[in-house]
Amino acid sequence: MSAAIEWIALALVMAWVGFAIAGPVGVGAMALVVLLLRGWLPVAGLMALLAPLGVMLPALALRQIAAGMGVAVIPFGSFELVVFLLAYLVFLASAMGVVPVDLYRFGYAPLPVAVMVLALCGYGALTGQVFLPIVAVMGQALWVMGWGSSNWFDHVLHAILVPVTIVVLILRVVGAW
Fold first, then answer.
1. What is the per-residue DSSP string for the chain?
2. How many domains does the chain have?
């Protein structure tokens, strides 16, 4: 079951790319390419490179496609993105052993995961954002069911978020000029 979820997640992420290139037609075309040509080297290579995709990347893809089609979406603030970027870079450094505290290990334990999910739900309630609480709870559900990684962070974070966040921040700075 987790393999099917990973392929659907990759199809959603590539549909996002298709939407950026060709609009709504690109969504269907890219999703079909991924789902029908899973054995094709470029598609299989993308899966090998990006897996596990978790919940965050497909959710961001759906969110951006919906926003591009006119659905009202509350954008992340630049301050939120900078805080996320800095915190995530510290998290990645700790997971690689650069920082003496291993924050990644908290993703294996039920109590820290529950606290993090509740904190994200509380943040969502305070800011009116439903996206982060949905991602946190969906990631927790997949984690509890044992679908995919045994670490909650693998469901709700992805290393590709670093360059994506940097690009969004640069585009905002350039757009402000």
1. -HHHHHHHHHHHHHHHHHHHHHTHHHHHHHHHHHHH-TTSHHHHHHHHHH---TTHHHHHHHHHHHHHTT---PPPPHHHHHHHHHHHHHHHHHHTTSSSS-GGGGGGSHHHHHHHHHHHHHHHHHHT--HHHHHHHHHHHHHHHT-S-SSHHHHH--TTHHHHHHHHHHHHHHHH-
2. 2
Note whether 95 and 175 are same-domain residues. yes
How does pLDDT run across 28-79, given as a tens digit for each residue?
999 999 999 999 999 999 999 999 999 999 999 999 999 999 999 999 999 9
| pTM, entire model | 0.89
- What pLDDT, in 10s, does the model give residues 90-149? 999 999 999 889 999 999 999 999 999 999 999 999 999 999 999 999 999 999 999 889
Query: For the stretch 138-161, what's the b/e string if a residue is b when 16 or more beta carbons lie within 10 angstroms of its beta carbon?
Result: bbbebbeeeebbebbbbbbbbeeb
Q: What is the dihedral of CA 3, 113, 102, 162, to 10 degrees?
A: 60
Range of the domain at 151: 75-177
Structure tokens belonging to residue 94: 């700790």
